[in-house]
Amino acid sequence: MGMVEIVVAGASGVLGRMICTEAQRIFGDDVTVVVGDRRESRGRETAAGLGGRARSVVMDVADDESVRTGLRGADLVIVAVGQSKPRVQDACIQLGVPCVDVTTDAEVVARVVERDDEARRSKVALVVMAGLFPGLSGLLAQQAAASLDSVDRLDIALRQSTNAEVGPSGVADMLRIVSAPVHGRPGFRERARLPFRSGSAAVRRIAHAEQRVLTEEIGVSDVAYWTAWDNERFNRMVGALIRARVLPRMASAFAVLAQHTPDRPQRVELMARAGGRVDGEAADRIVQLSADSDYGATATVAAALGAMALEQRWAGSGPPLRFSTLGAVLARASTPGITMSESRGTKRSGPLDGH
């Protein structure tokens, strides 16, 4: 493939730096990582810390001209910063540059997906929801569903670490997600026990933007998303703040209180369970995954998807499951930090836990 130049928009943030590092690992010596930052001095400092061929460019995703200037000469763009509208993707269509975006914003995702025809005409891929949750979560669900003759239910769950290194913005984003109402009722209230790799654990139901994607792509209307942290006291506190309507209004204020201790583990677990039928009998299929860290896994997935978009010349727009499979993405990621297991043939005679 030769030398590749990758612009990472928002590269000076916690997740952005991790994506830069993973891009250097996955692409090897044949990559120049370009730190996209609206602050010139901060961008230069980030690039210097990365080493290798890294350099920086001033890039403000809220300004069309700044985006186009920042992408000049790029072979690939990875977006690790929020956008109010998909300016980066629009520039990528004009310039013929593939784009991978870790966004969880439902409105931005919808607007990017609407550009599918334009992306195909320009022969570029605009991949959205390109991380762990969403991203790998949808691929897990896709794989679980594929081994059933028919699917009538999907459960997707994330067990988070309270020690996760995700920065204040990452904490605030998750607090907003869990605070969103589920079918008109407060989020993070309904409970269930679901099987993770480390054993059964209690989780709470949430609304999630990827839910609509699975309904459209897999054709299942009964889709439920769940999450919880690995500390029940923290879960109870979050639930109480939602009931008191302090969250999501004060999400940013509470996020700054989050602390990460480097010498403590921050392992995260993800699972998808598909309920349906095999040979006319009720059955479940479960696919489970664990990773050393939340943002670490997201960074790995984003960089791997970027490599695949370039190597396989993907075209169109949408989530990862529209372009590839779980096995292919994990193979390209090639990291011991993410491990997967799958159970097949489990017959089901009763309702799913928590329903």
Automatic annotation (TrEMBL):
Residues 6-104 form the Saccharopine dehydrogenase NADP binding domain. This is Saccharopine dehydrogenase-like protein.
